Amino acid sequence: MVVRYSDKFAAQKIANDWRPTTSDFNDTGSVDIESMLGQLKYAVKYILGRDQAGRHYTVFPDDTFLVSYPKSGNTWVRFLLANLLYPNETVGFANINRLLPAPGVLSKRFLRRLPRPRILKSHETFDPRFRKIIYLVRDPRDVAVSEYHFDLKKRYIEPDVTLEQFVKRFIAGETSSYGSWWEHAAGWIAARHGNPAFLLVRYEDLLAEPVGETGKIAEFLGIQAGPERLQAAVQRSSADRMRKLEKQQADQWTGTKNTRQEIPFVRSAKSGGWKESLPRRSAEEIEVAWAPLLNFLGYPLLTPELENKTMPPWIRTGQPL
Q1: Residues 85 and 217 sit within 8 Å (Cβ to Cβ)
Q2: Which of the two residues, 20 and 91, has the higher pLDDT score?
Q3: Burial class (CB in 10 A: 0-12, 13-18, 19+), 66
Q4: Which of 145, 193, 197, 292 could tie 132 with a disulfide, CB 3.0–4.6 Å?
């Protein structure tokens, strides 16, 4: 790795400018070595580009965020956008974090250097700093199945955990650091639905009409893209192509590196797959828990008596409480 002179200077300045403050002294009045070492460690991380942003980074007013609950198709849409924005690049898992960055796994230095306006990927729950949002939502019954297999792949759960057991934890918000699907989706939709800077995209609509829906996203972003360019982006982001890229580059992407390779990251890539793999009882448990939002988003239910469960009028009309 090449370390720029400016990076060396910045790190050296951090070290040189350090002066003990009252917080840097321990109870005996001596300089707290741990405090000094902490600042020196940060300087080293800065040089190496390992000052991981996580959830703590500067958000600019002109940023646009692609937000979704995990396992809702976010990676696919990242590929769509990257292929749309960079038609001359060969988009893959090896470079997707550079082309459409995910702050959670990148350094603060990298994020600061990105040209503006930035388009960033996120799984964050509602954050008032995020002003322009593409919110991708997926039927939570499909999300539950997808997340179950992903967690097996990442070894987040033991191999003997059943899908039925997983769904109960999924509904309780215990399978993700972002809470439950309901908390995530309802939080963003309740806060921003009806706002012109908020675009709600259903995964299922994107699958059914990929060119048309990608066109809506492009228009939202102010990208001038004709039918040929949109079609090319869709073709270059197909599930088959992503599967091939995953086999070639699984060890080069944070989402698949050091995971169980016998379990694919790109699986069926379809809607309604839950009907084949999710036990009816588990599907009904999800419907009972979240019927109002499922109805609001247009997801048909197995349980007819839940179809009258609705979201509050102020959410349906996009008006503030």
Answers
A1: no
A2: 91
A3: buried
A4: 197
**Tokens, residue 190:** 């309740």
Coil vs helix vs strand at 132: strand
CA distances from 247 to 73, 75, 171, 266 (A): 19, 16, 32, 10
**Mean pLDDT across the chain:** 85
CATH code 3.40.50.300 region(s) in the chain: 64-316
Q: Are 11 and 43 in contact (CB under 8 A)?
A: yes
Other Cβ atoms closer than 10 A to 297: 18
Residue of 296 and 19 predicted with greater confidence: 296
- What is the mean predicted confidence (pLDDT) over 172-185? 97
Measured at the CA of 89, the angle between CA 46 and CA 210, to 5 degrees, comes to 110
The structure tokens 């898992």 sit at 93
| pTM, full prediction | 0.82
Q: Strand, coil or helix: what is 317? A: coil
Distances (CA, A) of 74 to 23, 96, 174, 307: 43, 12, 21, 28
| Block residue for tokens 């230095």 | 109
Query: Is 109 within 8 Å of 43 (Cβ atoms)?
Result: no
Classify domain 64-316 by CATH number. Answer: 3.40.50.300
Q: What is the rounded CA–CA span in Å between residue 123 and residue 184?
A: 9
Q: Strand 132-137 and strand 198-202: pairing?
A: parallel
* Lookup: tokens for 205: 């609509």
Cβ atoms within 10 Å, residue 296? 19
Q: Give the chain's largest Cα–Cα span.
A: 71
**Beta bridge mates, 137:** 202
Residue length of the chain: 321
